[in-house]
Amino acid sequence: MPGNIASLHWLDCEFMAIDLELTSLNPKDSAITSVGWAEGKAGKMALNQCEHHVVMTFAPLNQSPVIHGLTQAHLKAGKPLLYCLQTLLEKGRDKIWVFHNANLDWAVLHRQFQQHGLRIPQVIIFDTLQFAVYQLAKQHQVLPSQSASLTVCRQRLGLPLATAHDALEDAFATLQLVFAQLYEFDPKAQLRLGELLHTGAIRYVSA
How far is 88 from 91, CA to CA, in rounded Å? Predict the structure, then answer.
């Protein structure tokens, strides 16, 4: 992907929405129990390029079995985290990484990349939650509770109800959301990424 983010037309970019199921909301110690990603371009999803992996971990699960339905038996039979991270890096090369709440998911991924000695060039991240906050802030001085959740953001744009707390389903839901957000913001699909930087939803990161 060219280094000059301002020159990239979003319609020409490949997007990869990523979702993690975690044992807690603390990025400093949360363990990944599953990871899913969905890829697409120009509003179309590439169903044959989507993946989901349960991650082998022996970390305390807290409420994960209740929320995500993943038990210790599932996780013992999961893929090694290093394999999942390496596969994610390979599949994500030259794509825009999309998260709904990048402050959490990317923080967890960044820590795991570092702990496993994995390094990547700069990556462009698009945060659908931050994009929603930017839009909502133009209408509300104080954001209503849960107004930027994945479910509510999708409802606001007329997208169907999606299954929650499953990494692959949430990745699908996030990919659909980013395309809906971009087409609503830019109906003629003419804008370049540089013209979206002021929203705070796009940034460079590196592992």
Answer: 5
